[in-house]
Amino acid sequence: MLIHIPDVLTKEQVAQFRQALAGAEWGDGRMTAGYQSAKAKQNLQLPEGSPVARQLGEAILKTLARVPLFMSAALPAKVFPPLFNCYEGGHGFGNHADNAIRYMPNGEAVRTDVSMTLFLSDPDEYDGGELIVDDTYGPHSTKLPAGHMVVYPGTSLHRVMPITRGTRIAAFFWCQSMVRDDTKRALLFDLDTAIQRLTKDMPDHPSLVQLMAVYHNLLRQWAEV
Ligand code: NI
Prior knowledge:
The protein is built from six helices and 16 strands. By secondary structure, the protein is of the alpha+beta class.
């Protein structure tokens, strides 16, 4: 299940991010890749300890905590601090799976149940650079406006198509979800989405209370906290 979360950052925030990133020191993207994915990966990345990455990453996490669609889709237990990448001049990232476990700067392990890419370049700034994610229904191509984010299962194979013009800048990160299983998480998301719609359209319907109880009782069954 791929979920598009619009307007995570405002146009003004995107402009501030872009300005800060333009002055940052970029390194080889293979610094955070595993053995297999290093062979497929060609891009630039900010080092994990970079003050710019830390500062912008904290701003993203602060904003995301107030985005109900993200909270409902990812059910985050722990979020890995966002990293930043830049693709240009033929860069791309061939088909790969992400490492299952990442270690935060304090040494704490994060299981990468859910992957996020927050686009910081607009689609008209570059050609190529689509994020392609495979799921059971086949490949899905994503190229979103700056400030928008895609959420997809950390279990999926995915790739970034080669850039043939311009520059693609994005933040990418992972979270460990309270609900590890993609199928269960997707069911909870669908149920929550339906409840939210019903709450808007028929706020006094007595079945809403029952549906909410079902949601929370499923979460109680499946959540690891
Ligand atoms: Ni990846």
